[in-house]
Amino acid sequence: MDKIFINHPEIEKYIFSLLEDDDPVLKEMEELAEKLNFPIVGRIVGKLLYLITKIKKPKLVVEIGSGFGYSGYWFAKALQGSGKLVLSDYKGENIQLAKEFLQKANLDKNVIFEVGDGVEIAKRYKDIDILFLDHEKSRYKEAADALKENLSKEALVIADNVLWYGKVLKPEQSKKVKAIDEFNRYMIKHFDTTIIPVRDGLLLAQKR
Ligand SMILES: C[S@@+](CC[C@H](N)C(=O)[O-])C[C@H]1O[C@@H](n2cnc3c(N)ncnc32)[C@H](O)[C@@H]1O
Question: What per-residue confidence (pLDDT) applies to 208?
């Protein structure tokens, strides 16, 4: 099945053009993602994560799959050191870059940089107020299930790529798509959940 753009690319371009930001660090990160073809959440979702975080005022945010820190940048910008942020990635070089970018942006206060399996890392934290999933899509359900007890009351779970460019319309086409579809259904059953059809689909859920 072909890739479906959830929103018209021109509409995304228009929104992006409105979300001007003159932070050179943000631009540098976006340019690096472009150069490496690295899948960051992008500015539209980033700004949404920033707003959700500002509204929620969390004491602890944990990210699984931080890459080189682009989504982390938006969480850190919203927190301004007032809550703890844990970034995690399998790859040490990604986490090293994340550290350098957040330091350069002066957003590294109260940020913990962890290398390893993000699900195992997250299990060490209690009372997580926002859990952000952006690692292997086939492991989203396992992460949400395993970390339920680590979430604070009314915690938010946010997950990226839950529409997988429309491929969820035919979940039987691959194990990965099936796993995403199962995760979406699991979240709808166990949490107060919706899917925001922005970029590649962002799932937003609150613990009941
Ligand atoms: C889509 S990228 C993350 C992008 C990042 N959230 C952003 O928007 O800037 C996915 C990342 O998850 C990492 N990853 C995959 N599985 C992981 C796991 N189980 N634990 C930690 N990191 C993982 C990969 O190394 C990769 O850097």
Answer: 93
Tokens 């109260």 found at: 110
- The reply to whether ligand 1 has any atom less than 6 angstroms from the CB of 91 is yes
Q: Is position 72 within any domain?
A: yes
The CATH number covering residue 159 comes to: 3.40.50.150
Task: From 87, 89, 124, 198, give the residue whose CB has the most ligand 1 atoms within 8 Å, as the site to mutate.
Answer: 89
Q: How far apart are CA 94 and CA 68, in angstroms?
A: 4
Pairing type for strands 60-64 and 202-207 reads unpaired
> Region 62-81: what's the mean pLDDT?
98
What span, in angstroms and rounded, lies between the C-alpha atoms of 130 and 32?
26
Ligand 1 pocket member 182 (CB < 6 A) = no
Å from CA of 65 to ligand 1 middle: 3
Atom 11 of ligand 1, residue of closest alpha carbon = 65
- Quick: pLDDT tens for 10-56: 999 999 999 999 999 999 999 999 999 999 999 999 999 999 999 99
| 137 Cα: distance to centroid of ligand 1 (angstroms) | 10
For 18, the domain range is: 9-207
- Smallest CA separation from ligand 1 atom 8, residue: 40
Domain count, the chain: 1
